[in-house]
Amino acid sequence: MSQSEMGFRTAPFGFRREDVLDFIEVEADRRSALEEKLNKAEQERARILQEKDEADRAAQALIADRDRMLQEEQAKEQTIVSLKAQVRQAQDEAEQAKQEIQTLKSRLEEAQSALDHVRADNAELISKCAEYDEARARLAEIELCAHGRAEEIQQRAEHDACSLVGEAEQMAERLLAAIEHTKESYRQALAAAERENAKANAQAAEALTQLDEIMTGLRGRMSGTAPEPKPQAAKPEKPVHKTEAKPVVHTEEKPACPMREKPTLAQLLGALRGNK
User: 144 versus 77: which is more confidently predicted?
Assistant: First the structure.
């Protein structure tokens, strides 16, 4: 930049101080303006870079959305193909259903014809329904009466059965008591017989001892008075032997006297009936 362009006016020893100061001030203002523009340009550049990053991210998101949409489109195409197959199958089934409906219609017509015949037959049977209903009413009444009679008979039978069971239980108790009483009588009779038997045995033993003593004394006397026994002297020995035998026989038969004959079951039941 030349001096004329800077606007410096000359002075005796150089440039004029006011011109230099004005130039510096102007340059400072211009520099400040340039720095401000530069800062704005930097801010604009940063904003543009940020917008570029955002645009890149948006582009990536759009690419991802595009890929997702492509996948969805492919899935939709597959779904459409499957739906088309299902539609074709449904059409085939509908055609088959139409044929079945036609067959059912023909069958329905046949059934309607049969129904007309049945209605014609029922018209004849309707006249007999009243008689049947009346007979059924009479039958129901008879059945009700029979049911009531059966319940009455059953209740009476149950009551009689309970009475019979009670009487049988009482009779069984009395029979058991009588049997127990008979058993006790048998026990007492057996004990008495055993006591009588023991007493008879003792008496027999005592009688035998006395007879032995008498016979011993008689033998001693006979041996001391007569050297040779005579037939007449032998006669007293026979009564002695007879006397000796009689207590033995009496002793053996005596225990049988107090024993009672064992009653039979018929006699026991007769006695129980007599007690009753």
Answer: 77
Question: Of the candidates 244, 248, 246, 260, which has an alpha carbon nearest to the alpha carbon of residue 200?
Answer: 248
Please report whether residue 45 resides in a domain: no
Is-contact 255 200, C-beta < 8 A?
Answer: yes
Q: How far is residue 54's CA from residue 52's CA, in Å, rounded to a whole number?
A: 5
CA dist., res. 29 & res. 237, Å (int): 197
Write out the residue range of the structural domain in which residue 226 sits. Answer: 188-275
Q: Quick one: which of 234, 239, 236, 243 has its CA closest to 208? A: 243
φ, ψ (nearest 5 deg) of residue 11: -140, 170
Q: Is residue 46 part of a domain?
A: no
Domain assignment present for residue 49? The answer is: no
Q: In the predicted model, what is the mean pLDDT of residues 55-75?
A: 89
Domain count, the chain: 1
Residue 117 placed within a domain? no
Quick check: 262 pLDDT over 70? no
